[in-house]
Amino acid sequence: xxxxxxxxxxxxxKFPYNKDYIEKVKTIKSHKWHxxxxxxSIPHSELGNLLSAFDDEKLDIDSxxxxxxxxxxxxxxxxxxxxxxxxxxxxxxLLGFSRKKPSExxxxxxxxxxxELADKRFASTSSLNIAINALKFYYGEVLKRxxxxxxxxxxxxxxxxxxxNQEEISKLFSAxxxxxxxxxxxxxxxxxLRVSEVxxxxxxxxxxxxxxxxxxxxxxxxDRYTLLSEVALWTLSLYRKSYRPAKxxxxxxxxxxxxTTRTVQRxxxxxxxxxxxxxxxxxxxxxxxxxxxxxxxGIDLRYIQELLGHKSSKTTEIYTxxxxxxxxxxxxxxxxxxxxxDMMKEVEGDED
Length: 352
What we know:
By secondary structure, the chain is α+β, with helices and mostly antiparallel strands. The chain has helices spanning 19-26, 47-53, 63-66, 68-76, 81-98, 107-120, 125-142, 166-174, 179-191, 195-199, 230-243, 261-274, 284-296, 301-308, 313-316, 324-327, 333-337, 340-351, and strands spanning 2-6, 10-14, 32-34, 39-43, 59-61, 206-207, 212-215, 224-227. Strands 3-4-2-1-5 form a 5-stranded mixed beta sheet. Strands 6-7-8 form a 3-stranded antiparallel beta sheet.
């Protein structure tokens, strides 16, 4: 058995000593023998030649090797590291599920895999759409296979974001005593940041003179400016005096690394417990609350779209459905039919 695995920038070829196998690998350009680890390696670009050389042999090829072209295409197009990992995961998972090579994958295999995600693994509509994007990119963009375009996308779940009201926001921040944790959460809410954006902030991104935060390379590789709250800035100043951050505004535990998104989520969860907030919320709910509270205060939806960095106004329009500004002006038909005072008299009469 010949095992072919992906290494650090190379393809690793492992097999029990066999003179014929060694001679075949030697016919491939830029092959290298690793004495201590006892395996041969070749550049990724030579994968096709390797498969041709061992055409008559049984090869145990790791799925990550088969997806090298996918990885190269994603990197060359400057997709984010997060997107690369997600696209790689779903394509690798499909190969594992179907137990086939990419060249053998059919439309039916893709449909069965998506059914597995939806019915057996209870994937959300959003996750299914991401999986479809990942498969379409590889089989459509990279391998130039047209069958994936026949896939019908599931309808999106029309769920409204859970919003923290202003009192809950106040209680939440009062529950956070650590100045660093407090500064992180204050920035997320006061500027409407995604959690990935707050962890990637650098000191120079805070424009004190203009009262703005420069968000670089956000979702869709877009830059934007958003608000810098005076309260958040004051807290940030106290934090900087105590921690003196260098490369990243919020330094992580590992030297030279920023705080992780999971750490921020844990900080938020702990704050919710202390503040006794029972709603099912995540740190992203602070961003939702920021947008909703701006809308309720009379800020135009177009400005909110810019602050959030939404590509389409339709994305921002969801906050019109959760805002209490206009809903509060609408009277229930019950109140229009029966005046509250008359109803109260009837209730009081029944009690007598």
